[in-house]
Amino acid sequence: MNQIDSFGKKDDKGRFKRIPSSFRNFITNDGSSGYPAKNSRYHLYVSYACPWAHRTLIMRKLKGLEHAISFDVVDFRMDDHGGWHFTGKDGSTKDSLNGKESLREIYLNADPDFTGAGTVPVLWDKKQGTIVNNESREIIRMFDTQFGGIAQNKVSFLPNGMEAVVDRTIDDIYVPINDGVYRSGFAKTQEAYDEAVAALFDALAQWNETLGSQRYLCGNRMTEADICMFTTLIRFDLVYHGHFKCNIRRIIDYPNLWNYVKDIYQTPGISDTCNFYHMKHHYYLSHISLNP
Q1: Would you call 228 a catalytic residue per the annotation?
Q2: Buried b / exposed e across 220-237, counting CB within 10 Å, b at 16+?
Q3: Is position 182 annotated as part of the catalytic site?
Q4: Which end of the chain, C or N, has fewer beta carbons within 10 A?
Q5: Catalytic residue, candidates 182, 216, 260, 283
Q6: Mapping DSSP to helix (H, G, I), strand (E, B) and coil, where does residue 153 land?
Q7: What are the tens digits of pLDDT across the range 59-101?
Q8: Catalytic residue among 50, 218, 228, 246
């Protein structure tokens, strides 16, 4: 299994198709799911380079959950089979919880029949010794809505009455933008690349126009949708423009999107979660098949 096949497949037209996340349990405030929101019970495994994992670090920071949810960071280098490792080098960590050398071993601990390299983020339950969830969108929703008695910052990124619009917006940006950069970079045919790039830049133009009349994607309050958008846009000019050949324009060429990225980056706490060294070194040193 090569790097790209570890988290996606190709259809008959060469389009990249992401494999759905496999662990989908949910932490609840009242514990009705079997996973109660408890202080110091859960642990994150993340990559500073990965936009999906970055979402969880941002929500953890904004909600004030640093004291309650520990985390470890994989090395920015991905092996030839798409695997992440704990090395303790260059700003990564060792596996402080389970003492494993690779993320795949964490997945095998949770499911001995697991195949594949394992993706980040991973939300681990220390008590049951298993993976709760590895879907970033669901992890940030849990952090945002289920840890009210534990979170030190009493702010919501899913305001009452806005649930539908936030979910719809996250859906709207996922395929063309969040996954669109990968669909462009991992396309195996010219047709698949052209299709993905056109959808990506059409969507960027649309949101640039929207942000000309409002501060955030869903209006004048930051929501979960903005966190999902930001982690893609902050990497765009840095790596996606060149490495994934999303090179019709840069984010800096869209005045409203560029101001939006700078605005969110300057939100207290968010810059602390951004590791540009890991971002650049991961993409350019791991995906050798794309840019030898």
Answers
A1: no
A2: ebbbbbbbbbbbbbbbbb
A3: yes
A4: C
A5: 182
A6: coil
A7: 999 999 999 999 999 999 998 888 999 999 999 999 999 999 9
A8: 50
